[in-house]
Amino acid sequence: MADVYKGELTPLQRHVAFFDRDKDGVIYPSETYEGFRAIGAGVSLSAFSALFINGLLGPKTVPENEKAPAFKLPIYVKNIHKGKHGSDSGVYDANGRFVPEKFEEIFKKHAHTRPDALTGKELQELLKANREPKDFKGWLGGFTEWKVLYSLCKDEKGFLHKDTVRAVYDGSLFERLEKERKFKESTKKKC
Ligand code: HEM
């Protein structure tokens, strides 16, 4: 197990640790792919996400003295805070810690239909409100994070629940989704 897992992880490190399947402290595209598949994403979304996330975010996280080949697109869990982009919600601070006030602000400002969930339209409003001028990479980053979350986790009425969003920020959501998927598959086989 890598050193990063021996101390306390920041919430942002916990957010990505699920995707470090072998817990060596580095997430390769194959692990991002495997993690997406494990939570129920299809082949195309998983393959696209692996290339997109590792390609754009990985290089920002590589330690200066690291000699590992860049073409392998590694993401270093210990430096994941360096992968933060602009036009985000601010719920993770610059060091990857959770900022409760910013989290509450999302729902105070944008949850108009009911206080504990967001509709697709309200999510769109959140994304627009987070946009910093001409920060195209940040827009794209925020857009994909929130849209993927919405597509995987909205309920049958199209609501994205506050407790689901909270679980994204502490990383527990991904483990829950994997367990749910495994359970569904095991019950399917029995029938
Ligand atoms: C299904 C998988 C994933 C979903 C649904 C997801 C969703 C999210 C969401 C909703 C945020 C909050 C953005 C904000 O506060 O505006 C976020 C932040 C972040 N995610 Fe993920 N994520 C996923 C996988 C990953 C993976 C695999 C990585 C990298 C290994 C990653 C790295 C990050 C980083 C660095 C941030 C901080 C962005 C910032 O605050 O600037 N995520 N993610």
TrEMBL record:
UniProt cross-references to Pfam families, sorted A to Z: Caleosin
GO molecular function: calcium ion binding; monooxygenase activity
PANTHER family given in the database record: PEROXYGENASE 3-RELATED, PEROXYGENASE 4
Family affiliation: Belongs to the caleosin family.
Protein name: Peroxygenase 4
UniProt source species: Panicum virgatum (Blackwell switchgrass)
Lineage: Eukaryota, Viridiplantae, Streptophyta, Embryophyta, Tracheophyta
